[in-house]
Amino acid sequence: MIIDHTNRRVLDVLESREKATVVQYLREGQTSGLFAHVREVTTDMWDAYVEASREVFGEAVAIVIDRFHVLKNFQEQLTAARVATRLARRRSPGVEGESVAVGDQSGES
To answer: Which of 9, 36, 62, 91 has the highest Cβ tally under 10 A?
Structure first.
């Protein structure tokens, strides 16, 4: 889906997510003047979108990953790390039931 964020409107829905399809659409938009003033491309983490944008617009246009996918990826990685840590603690002898103090324990401020 191609969206104009400045004017808050959907420009087009492409028939596929393949890089060639995206490159063709972006080149046509560039030739017609539709994308003459593009300064930034926001995309999800799909490599084909990033590569197509870079191929067509070059280094002159900033390519950023959208906030939703960044936070989704972060949450997935954080959850995986918590699960791995919990499983590792269960497998380590002598760790279960121990307490850990974090921060200044002297009672002084």
So the answer is: 62
Task: Kindly state the tokens that stand for 51.
Answer: 């590569």
3-state SS of the chain: helix, strand, coil percent to 5? 50, 15, 40
Q: Judge whether 41 and 53 are in contact, CB under 8 Å.
A: yes
**81 vs 39: CA distance, rounded Å:** 36
Q: Is 12 helix (H, G, I), strand (E, B) or coil?
A: strand
Residue pair 9/16 in contact by the 8 Å Cβ criterion: no
- Domain ranges, ordered by start, for the chain: 2-65
CB 10 within 8 Å of CB 3: yes
63: which strand partners?
Answer: 41
pLDDT score recorded for residue 91: 86
- pTM, to two decimals: 0.66
- For residue 94, give Cα distances in angstroms to 81, 82, 91, 100, 101: 21, 19, 9, 13, 17
Strands 9-12 and 62-65, by their bridges, are unpaired
